[in-house]
Specification:
Elements (H helix, E strand, L loop, with lengths): L1 H14 L2 H23 L8 H12 L1 H16 L2 H5 L6 H9 L2 H18 L6 H27 L2 H19 L10 H9 L1 H13 L6 H30 L2
């Protein structure tokens, strides 16, 4: 119940900044429309909806990194966390309380992007339902990254780090192009990180290529666990430092 109460408070804080929230939902819609127009003038199928949509949805999750990092960073800057550290919540409870209210936002991003993609020509089939489930599993990866950033940095610093994060993760995910078009060291680095696997898992499900999904999801889940544990550990260090 304590975690639920803390999560409810965090949800209210997130919705108090509707401009940032709308930007995190609106930009992916604009990108879907833009690349859909570009595809009509291309001689090859680089930005067809069945390839583009999963990548754009995963790209939209990078805004969850911004939301979670900014929220936690602001709480640190306002000394709000120091005041509630006297509560019986553990570091894991705090991180969970920040993560929970962002999951409905992730679901909203998924539904809005899918509705836009279907309006632009993406055919509906049962694979879309399985992709929604996989995307919900993927979204905590980006939330946990934001919570780690928010734990380590202030809210103003998180904004700058997000600009770097969103560019690096998007290029390394293969959202806008196939990574084997570049190959070499760039592709090898991308294969070691979870972002490419997140996009590949969503695309494989949408294409009903389920044999290629398991490994990619395992990589994503593994990184999510690591990032969450790191966020909890660093948050606990902050708690112990503030109570000494």
């Amino acid at each position: 119940m304590r975690v639920a109460a803390f999560a409810t408070r965090n949800h209210k804080e997130i919705v108090r900044d509707p401009i940032t929230l709308l930007f995190g939902i609106g930009l992916p819609i604009l990108l879907l429309g833009l690349f859909s127009v570009m595809q009509k003038n291309m001689p090859f199928a680089l930005y067809e909806m069945n390839n583009l949509t999963p990548g754009v949805i995963v790209f939209s999750f990078s805004f969850l990194t911004l939301f979670s990092g900014m929220l936690l960073g602001k709480d640190k800057s306002s000394s709000f966390l120091m005041r509630i550290f006297v509560s019986p919540l553990s570091a894991a409870d705090y991180i969970l309380g920040y993560m929970i209210p962002l999951l409905p936002i992730a679901l909203l991003q998924i539904f809005v992007c899918l509705a836009t993609a279907m309006f632009l020509g993406l055919p509906f089939n049962k694979s879309i339902l399985f992709m929604i489930l996989a995307l919900l599993i993927i979204s905590p990866l980006y939330i946990s990254c934001g919570l780690l950033f928010g734990t380590l940095f202030t809210d103003k610093q998180v904004g700058g780090i997000f600009a770097i994060f969103v560019n690096v993760t998007t290029w390394l995910s293969g959202t806008w192009f196939e990574l084997d078009m570049i190959g070499g060291t760039f592709q090898k680095i991308a294969q070691l990180l979870p972002f490419m696997h997140a996009v590949n898992a969503a695309r494989a499900i949408l294409h009903a290529e389920y044999a290629n999904v398991f490994y990619s999801l395992i990589v994503v889940i593994g990184y999510t666990i690591i990032m969450t544990i790191l966020a909890i550990f660093m948050f606990k260090q902050k708690m112990q430092g503030s109570t000494k």
